[in-house]
Amino acid sequence: MPTPDFDLLMMRRALDLARLGTGHARPNPIVGCVITYDGRIIGEGWHQQYGGPHAEVNAVAAVAEPELLPRSRVYVTLEPCSHFGKTPPCADLLIEKGVAEVVVCNLDPNPLVAGRGIAKLREAGIQVEIGVLEEEGRWLNRRFFTFQEQKRPYVVLKWAETADGYLAGPYFQPVAISGALAQVMVHQWRTEEQAILVGTRTALHDNPRLNAREWPGQDPIRLVIDKNLCLPPTHHLLDGSQPTVVYTYRERTNMPNLDFMTLSEADDLFPQILHNLYERNVQSVLVEGGPTVFNSLLKDGLWDEARVIRSPKQLKGGVTAPHQGLTGLHEQFRVGEDEVFVYHRL
């Protein structure tokens, strides 16, 4: 029987493997799997691409001696699925291979699974242990758990501010605040979230592309709030180069890669947007501006994580950075000359 320390070591390895699927498996959760026999790893894998084989399938395929599977112990970061989706149920695969034991980090909150995978395994006579490194697993798949349990995407706020607390120059004049290394990091963040949101002023004054030019990975879905459709058609956000949703109070016909979503003026703006994103199966959104958007989300508690890049530069005037409602400093680190503060909503 493996020791508790061995179980922790193998589950940490499975969590490390799961991280490799960040930005690729969405909207599915990221999952890792390790298969052991007699104290050694005989196979491992992770969910590499949405629509592709799941972690358990890849791990089983990596086993060079399949005759060992009936005596193996399988570590998986999320409950094996029990339903047919784009791939067959992983619980059925483990039963078919006759594995002896399965150790699970987290139960799957998806109503299509929700304990059914565990029940299938146990009914087949497989010994199942649940909850090894449970908190670490929930944090790793925080986007997925938020989406399933709160029926909205995981919301990450991101802004760069000067040492004296400004987001932009007077009258929203764009100013390069963060350094080159921090800008690359932001493009990496963009590949890790499914969508990216800006408000009207940011779209008008910055004319952003909102893609990931400086980091390999998938571009996020672009979201822009343009209540009165005042963005000029020459702006990048309306160029149709990547999927874009415009949230507005006006009616307008959709175009290729450009969806105009008409919202109700009678209801609060951001709950409507988050509900629409839930209906679109968007599990996470990176919010990049501007101050009106940030302040509204902070005030209403509609955020999960905030990443503030603080530059040593000073403006001595301009648009003030938001901080009201910002709590729960989780970590702090330096990137080049900039300092990064990461907050988690408590």
UniProtKB/TrEMBL annotation:
PANTHER family attached to this UniProt entry: 2,5-DIAMINO-6-RIBOSYLAMINO-4(3H)-PYRIMIDINONE 5'-PHOSPHATE REDUCTASE, DIHYDROFOLATE REDUCTASE FAMILY PROTEIN (AFU_ORTHOLOGUE AFUA_8G06820)
Residues that hold Zn(2+) according to the record: 54, 81, 90
Full protein name: Riboflavin biosynthesis protein RibD
Catalytic activity annotation: 2,5-diamino-6-hydroxy-4-(5-phosphoribosylamino)-pyrimidine + H2O + H(+) = 5-amino-6-(5-phospho-D-ribosylamino)uracil + NH4(+); 5-amino-6-(5-phospho-D-ribitylamino)uracil + NADP(+) = 5-amino-6-(5-phospho-D-ribosylamino)uracil + NADPH + H(+)
Pathway: Cofactor biosynthesis; riboflavin biosynthesis; 5-amino-6-(D-ribitylamino)uracil from GTP: step 3/4; Cofactor biosynthesis; riboflavin biosynthesis; 5-amino-6-(D-ribitylamino)uracil from GTP: step 2/4
GO biological process, one term: riboflavin biosynthetic process
Binding site for substrate: 190, 206, 210, 213, 288
Pfam families per record: dCMP_cyt_deam_1 (PF00383), RibD_C (PF01872)
NADP as UniProt keyword: yes
CDD domains the UniProt entry points to: Riboflavin_deaminase-reductase
Sequence similarity: In the C-terminal section; belongs to the HTP reductase family.
